[in-house]
Amino acid sequence: MVFSYYAIFGAFPHSGPANGFNEVILVRGAGLNVANTTFCHLNKTEIAPVTISETLIECPMTLPDKDPLITGYVDLGLNFDGFFNDFGQFYYYTQIDFGVIEPTYGPNEGEGEIYFTGENFREDFQGVEIGCKLGDAIGQGEITGPNSIKCVVEEMQLVEEGEGLVVKLALNSYSWVGGAQGDILYRPYGITNIQPSSGPYDGFTDVRISGKGFNAEYAEKGRCRFGTESNFAIIEADVLDYSQMICRSPEEFMLPEGADQLFSVPFSIAFGEEEFKPYTLGTHRYRFYTDPRLEQAIPEEVRIGKFAEIYVYAYEDTPFFERKSHFTLLFLKILNHVIFVALPSRNGDLTGVLCNFEEFGTSMGMYINETTVMCVTPHVQGRPEDYGRETVQVTVAMNGQDFSEANSDAYVTFVGTGGGAGIIKILMFILLLALLILAIIYLCMNMAARPKRQSDAAYTANDDLF
After folding, report:
1. Which of 183-192, 203-212, 348-357 shows the lowest mean pLDDT across its residues?
2. Which of 45-54, 101-110, 174-183, 233-242 shows the lowest per-residue confidence on average (mean pLDDT)?
3. Among candidates 283, 113, 236, which has minimal Cα distance to 186?
């Protein structure tokens, strides 16, 4: 004995265009292909389904002999193996059309408003579900005037340069129509990453925004917003190309109530006009922090050519802080060489803590605790014998970018095997080489400018001239 079951969840849409002869009404459920007989019930008439599958039955939206100009309500149901399922009333409306949208660009995630101008817009019937469709993303619409619909799509895909999302509109969020004069395209903009995602509270950090949609046509309107709608700073953006732009973090951002100078705020961008709610609303945040003041570095001396760990200590009143990174950094020491292994993590900056040793370069650092960061000695150009003793200031960038010399009392001496003038010798060599090149250029220019010597022989006129 075989037992079969089915479940009918409901029908969609609940309204449609009066001339929708090529459209269908979707009946969703489970086990829908087990019935011996299945009929769609439309305007008190039974008609065969267009298709039947296990989870979906497609019923014709209109009867073949329906007058395409008549609007109004009809009964809708499904006769499934002799059992009638009543879906209530279905409404026929006159199909809409539109020709203009404003604006034609906006945030790919957020509350950006799009206004449609067209004809036959209405919402005075049961079963109306106004919607707009941008690419594959669907948003909810509402009537704002006799010939105007406002629609908001909260999330949509980004597109490549020169492309756009095809815009469509429907009173039932299903029977889509495009622009009356052809396809209308919408160009979204959005963020994929910001780097760095943190910076000193004093501001002036150049934040690079990666994304898409930074179109040259409206690049001059680009701006970044640090903060919430009630507490924010707006900074003009420098658009580099379609996928890159830079904003500088604000100076003296207003502290949230009860917060110290270590806090994070939402980060968003915009190009459109304020009236259309143009700012992106995603998960990107920017973190402000107080630059740690460095007290000392231990050991105070390191040998050039050998790997060493240097521990940098901060004053207690300006501690280090643990920061989230896209990578977990591991230090492996093999045969006196250091190898960095970056394991992916889920949030934070792409760049970790960096340590700077002036002319000797930059190296990776690791947060140990609130008073300690461990740095490794950078790779030094040249040989140990090229250097003597060189003392340099140590600075640390918690965001991998902003080093503050004014906040560091830490120094390290690099010790080579030379006579103490290695770097001076190198600089003198470079200077002499530059002077030699300039002398050669000057000589060549003088030779090129010297006039040619005229012949001492008497001038003899050509006989042909007489």
Report:
1. 348-357
2. 174-183
3. 113
Phi and psi (nearest 5°) for 435?
A: -65, -40
Query: CB neighbours of 334 closer than 8 A, spacing ≥ 6?
Result: none
Q: Which residue has the tokens 């003038």?
A: 421
Q: Distance from CA of residue 84 to its chain's centroid?
A: 51
Nearest to 413 by CA among 393, 390, 380, 387: 390
Cα separations in angstroms, 58 against 51, 185, 327: 5, 30, 50
Q: Which residue has the tokens 């903009």?
A: 189
Taking only the tens place, the pLDDT of each residue in 372-423 is 999 999 999 888 888 999 999 999 999 999 999 999 999 999 999 886 555 5
Q: What is the pLDDT of residues 211-224, one digit of tens each?
A: 999 999 999 999 99
- Which domains does the chain show, CATH number per domain? 7-93 (2.60.40.10), 188-289 (2.60.40.10), 294-415 (2.60.40.10)
CA distances 217 to 115, 271, 310, 328, 342, Å, are 20, 10, 50, 40, 39
What residues contact 74, with CB distance under 8 A and at least 6 apart?
42, 43, 44, 89, 90, 92
Quote the mean pLDDT of the chain. Answer: 88
Model pTM greater than 0.85? no
Phi and psi based region of residue 375 (left: phi greater than 0; alpha: psi -120 to 50; beta: remaining): beta
| Distance between first and last Cα of the chain | 130
